Amino acid sequence: MTDTPPPARARTLNDIAKLAGVHPGTVSRALADNPLVNAETRARIQALAGEHGFRPNQMASRLRTQRTNVIGVVVPLGHEQRQHLSDPFFMTLLGHLADGLTENGYDLMLSRVIPNADDWLERIVDSGMLDGVLLIGQSDQVAVIERVAERYRPLVVWGSHLDGQRHCAVGVDNRLGGLLAGRRLIARGCRRVAFFGETRTLELSERYEGVRQALREAGLAEPTLCATHLASDVMADEIAAHVDRLAGEIDGIAAASDVIAMHSLRALADRGVAVPQGMPVVGFDDLPFASTVIPRLTTIRQDIPTGAAAMIRALFARMEGRDAPSVVMPPVLVERDSG
Predict the structure, then answer these.
(1) Are residues 178 and 164 in the same domain?
(2) Which of 290, 236, 300 is nearest to 268 (CA)?
(3) Is 157 a member of any domain?
(4) Among 47, 65, 83, where does a domain finish?
(5) pLDDT (0 to 100) of residue 81
(6) What average pLDDT does range 63-70 have in this prediction?
(7) In sequence order, what E strands does the chain have?
(8) Residues 6+ apart with CB under 8 A from 93
(9) Which string of b and e fits 118-128 if b means at least 16 CB within 10 Å?
(10) What is the CATH number of the domain that holds 44?
(11) 83 and 229 both lie in a single domain
(12) What are the backbone dihedrals phi and psi of residue 153, each rounded to the nearest 5 degrees, phi first?
């Protein structure tokens, strides 16, 4: 007695169509859950497909619809080529973007880009692989972003918005955030403030200008600008050197980011400087660790979950051909222990 061979697996739309007794187009629509196919037929076709482990050819489907269901999330690092995606700010924003995109049925293609050619963004948007692009940060590439935004609509950027800017940006009012940080340090009695950060990017230069404005309004000297890279492999050493060099010359630190502020707390603790008694420190971002470091970090909050949701809404609107202006969120001073 011989065993009966198992029925052949259905491997194509035509195979499923023959089993179901319908046209292949009906199978395609049913598997896409198209309401044009009546519910009973849809259920029967979907059950057959499940029985045979059939998955539609996604590439063919994308060619037909001219959509990829993939969004590019790109981190341009023209200003800081050694910075990593593991940076806590990138990871926090990326997590919220990934959640929002996947919940809306999109896949995500992540790229860390060193802009070593002027057409780096054109190569991404013209690849044919993406339905839209989200940039995390403007870096020092504002001119490139502006040029591409003139012709490529589904592009949204986390960053600053300035008058006359063409590209759609979502972010906090960085200058106002710097102003709040400066005023907070002044209220704590600081008169000789240092800014730990760098000014090669639009966002951070705006934060620095805000701190400058606060000191100018109070009739105080300009902040001491202490160039501090965002790359983790050099940041701690640079901050330690700033603290040693400026000992006795400054009485407050405005940090360009929470990560810089956290390293500043460590450098001061290593030297026996009490925070905030001996040196108030104010950060910027309000990342999750800001409330758990010791002392807890006084910082300027940019609402990352709200901003990520706004980026996705703006991108989807632009993908549908609708306009979506920039979103400028208000910064909030979060008073904790460090400053």
Answers:
(1) no
(2) 236
(3) yes
(4) 65
(5) 66
(6) 65
(7) 70-76, 107-113, 132-136, 155-158, 168-172, 193-197, 224-227, 252-255, 281-285, 298-301, 327-329, 332-334
(8) 136, 158, 304, 307, 308
(9) eebbeebbeee
(10) 1.10.260.40
(11) no
(12) -80, -45
Range of the domain at 19: 13-65
Q: What is the CATH number for 80?
A: 3.40.50.2300
pLDDT tens digits, residue range 264-279? 999 999 999 999 999 9
> Going by C-beta distance under 8 Å and a sequence separation of 6 or more, which residues neighbour residue 201?
79, 137, 138, 139, 140
- In DSSP notation, 179-242 reads HHHHHHHHHTT--SEEEEE--SSHHHHHHHHHHHHHHHHTTPPPPEEEE--S-HHHHHHHHHHH
3-state DSSP percent of the chain in helix, strand and coil, to 5: 40, 15, 40
What does the block give as tokens for 83?
A: 């910075």
Query: Which two structure tokens, joined as six digits, stand for 17?
Result: 């169509």
State yes or no: cis peptide before 276, omega within 30 of 0. Answer: yes
**pTM reported for the whole predicted model:** 0.80
Residues 110 and 155 in one domain: yes
Could you report the per-residue pLDDT of 141-161, keeping only the tens digit for each? 999 999 999 999 999 999 999
